[in-house]
Amino acid sequence: MTEKxxxxxxxxxxxxxxxxxxxxxxxxxxxxxxxxxxxxxNFINPFKSVVKKFERKTGHKVIVISxxxxxxxxxxxxxxxxxxxxxxxxxxxxxxxxxxxxxxGTQYTYALGKITLWSxxxxxxxxxxxxxxxxxxxxxxxxxxxxxxxYGKAALQILKNLDQWDNLKPFIVQxxxxxxxxxxxxxxxxxxxxxxxxQVLDPKNIHTGxxxxxxxxxxxxxxxxxxxxxxxxxxV
Length: 236
Prior knowledge:
Radius of gyration: 19 Å
Order of helices and strands: HEHEHEHEEHEHHEHEHEEH
Pfam family, one: SBP_bac_11
GO biological process, one term: molybdate ion transport
Strand order of the largest sheet: 2-1-3-10-4
Strand content: 15-25%
InterPro entries: AvModA-like_subst-bd, ModA, ModA/WtpA
Helix content: 40-55%
CATH architecture of the largest domain: 3-Layer(aba) Sandwich
Keywords: Metal-binding, Molybdenum, Signal
Protein name: Molybdate ABC transporter substrate-binding protein
Structural class: alpha/beta
Shape: globular
CATH topology of the largest domain: D-Maltodextrin-Binding Protein, domain 2
CATH class of the largest domain: Alpha Beta
Number of strands: 10
Distance between the termini: 42 Å
């Protein structure tokens, strides 16, 4: 592992330890032996690695629930007993604060998401997203649900900005979340798909397939925000 990667991983671990431990000590989560954290699917793997280190270091148990941002948001507004929400966008945490489900002043951007076009077959991806889509060396292209998943919304924006949405509609298969979307491509149920860059860079996948990165001006920034929920705030 290079020093740069090791430093990034340490920073990620250090941030979450400070974040979780800070809220426990400040009694927003009052001496909790167990914390329930709802995590957007695209961040589940790096978060789990942080949780293991956190639990070993502090003795506190972290229960991780993952899913699409939209579904987790719906569960929270329907009374799910989560303490912290790591969203894949900034809109849902803002809404939760306005609606009284999250604690004012606890929203914070923990990551900026990037989307990429990826295939497990290296022959399908060309040197740009435009040429890859125009060559149509595929029968299916996977995107996450644009209504519930921020990465699905970004994929829809990209296709519309390239004037390819109407042309490619018959080829699209839709994942419930970005995790399922990645699995469609990984298992070759779809020859390529719009997935999170973090999924492709995961050590388990980094040597698999080929990707083409997408200019950031093709889609709105994917600000991923974390927020403490009122279940935790009210437990003081």
